[in-house]
Design goal:
The complex is a heterodimer of chains A (about 290) and B (about 210). Chain A is an alpha/beta fold and about 290 residues long. Chain A has eleven helices and 14 strands. Chain A folds into two domains: about 210 residues, P-loop containing nucleotide triphosphate hydrolases (Rossmann fold, 3-Layer(aba) Sandwich); about 60 residues, no CATH class. With about 210 residues, chain B is an all-alpha fold. The longest helix of chain B is centred in the middle third of the chain and has 33 residues. The chains are: A alpha/beta (about 290), B mainly alpha (about 210).
Chain lengths: ~290, ~210
Amino acid sequence: MSNALEVCHLTKDYGSFKLDDVSFTVPGGTIMGLIGENGAGKSTTIKCILNLIHRDGGEISVFGLDAIRDERAVKSQVGVVLDESLFHDTLNPVQVGKILSKLYPNWDGRCYGGYLRKFELPEKKTVKTFSRGMKMKLAIAAAFAARPRLLILDEATSGLDPVIRDEILDEFLNFIQDEDHAILISSHITSDLEKAADYVTYLHKGRVVLSGAKDELLDSYGKLVCSRADLERVDRSLLAGSRVGQFGCEALVKDRHAFARRYPGLTVDPATLEDIMVFTGKGDAK
Amino acid sequence: MTGLIYKDIVALRKQLSTLLLFLIVYGGFCVTGVFDFSILGALVAVFGLTIPMSSVAMDDAAHWDRYAVATPAGRRGVVAGKYVFTLLVIVVSVAVAAGLMVCLSLAGLTETTLDDLVLIALSCGVLTLVLNAIILPFLLKYGAEKARVISMITFVVIFGGAVLLGGLAKDQITLPQPPAWLLTALPVLLGLLAIGSYLISYFIAQGIYAKKEF
C-alpha cells in the first residue's frame, strides 16, 4: 500500500501563528482525519498542500510527486472541497460542470450528473438559490467528478445537518474502496471522523500532538471518571489531562489497559476523539 | 485555462447582454444624429475596461481564485485566463464597433470615410490594451475594489493629458513637431507598443500572482 500523501516537517510562520514541523502520511485506501480546535493549523496545512500559501519549510508529496515541482500533475489527481462553496452565484450546476470539465483532465460528466441526481440538486437553478448544504453537495459532486485519486476536504461537513453529513460520509467510504484512492479531511466534528477515518492527526497550536491509526488511539486512550481523592493517588505520568469539577473528576488516560492493570479499582471508559481533543486542547494537562 | 475563460463569459453573460443593449442604444443615438459615430469607438474602451474589472469583482465576491488556484490550472492558468479573456473582450468590442460603424457608413449615415472609422475603432482598441496593461497587475494583486482607484487615476492621467495637449494645440502654443517618418509609422509603433506593454504586463502579473497567498 503506497502513500497517497506525505507531509514532512511542514513549517509556515505567520508571526502570530506558526505551523511547526508538521509531519504525517495518508496511505492509499484510507481516510485521514485532521482534527484540532479552531486556529490549530488545519486549514493552513491544507493550503500548503494545495500551494494556496507558500510554506517556509518542509516537503509535501502526492503519490510520489512533489507538490510544487509537479504541481499540475498533482492537482490533476486531487479533488478539492474547501470550507465554503466558491462557485459564482450566477452559475448553475450544469455550467459549473462545463467549466470544470475544461479544467480537470479526467473530468467525468456522467459521474457528475449522477451525483447531481443523487444529491437532488436542481441542474438549472443558480447557486444563489442553494442552501449551504446544497452548495457543499455541489462542491463534493464536482470533487468526485474530477476523478481524483486524493480528495482533500477542509471543514467540508461543518454546518451541514446530520442526515446530509451521514450521506456524504457514506460517499467517502465508497470512494476509498479503491486502494488507489485516499481522503484527507479536516474537521472539528470528531464524531464524523470517528465514523469514517482510518487515521487521525491531531493538531494543537500548529503542532502535531498525536498521529496514528484511529482504532489504536481509541483503544489506547481512556476516560477516567473518579473522585478527587482517587485522582490524587493516580500517577500523573499515566494521564494526558484532567479536569476537576464540582461533582467529580475526569482524566484522559494514555494507556487504559496498563492503567486498568495498575488501578483495577478505578473504572476507565473508552475515550472518544472529542475527549482526546478537549483534554489536550484545554492545556490543563497535569 | 479555457475553462476559466468560459467561466468569465458564462458568469458575465447578463452583463454582456446589458452592454450589447448599450451599444444598440448608442448606435441609435448616432443614427438620429445625437452623437457622432466615433462614440462607438469610445465604447470599446468602456467595454474593455469594465468587463475585465467586473469579472475580477465577481471572482473576489465568490472567493473563486482560492478554488481556481487549487485546480490543475494553478496560478499561471488564472493569470493567463484573465489576460486572454481581456484580449478577447477588446478584440470582440473592436470588431463589433468597427462593424457597426462600417454598416452605418455604408448606409450613408456619416460622411467620415470607412478607413477613418476603422482607424477610430482600432485606436480605441490599442488604447484599451495599454490601459489594461497598466491595470490588470493591480487588479490581480489587490482585487477589483482597490484596483478601481488605480484604474480611475490611470484614466484621468491619460485622458487629462490628451485634453491638456489638445488645449495647448488649440491655444496655438507650439509643441515640438515630430519628424515625418515618425508620424507615418505612428499607428504601427503605437500598436507594437500596446502589444509589447500587454506582454510585459502579463509577465509582471505572473510574478505578482506567484507570490500571492490565498
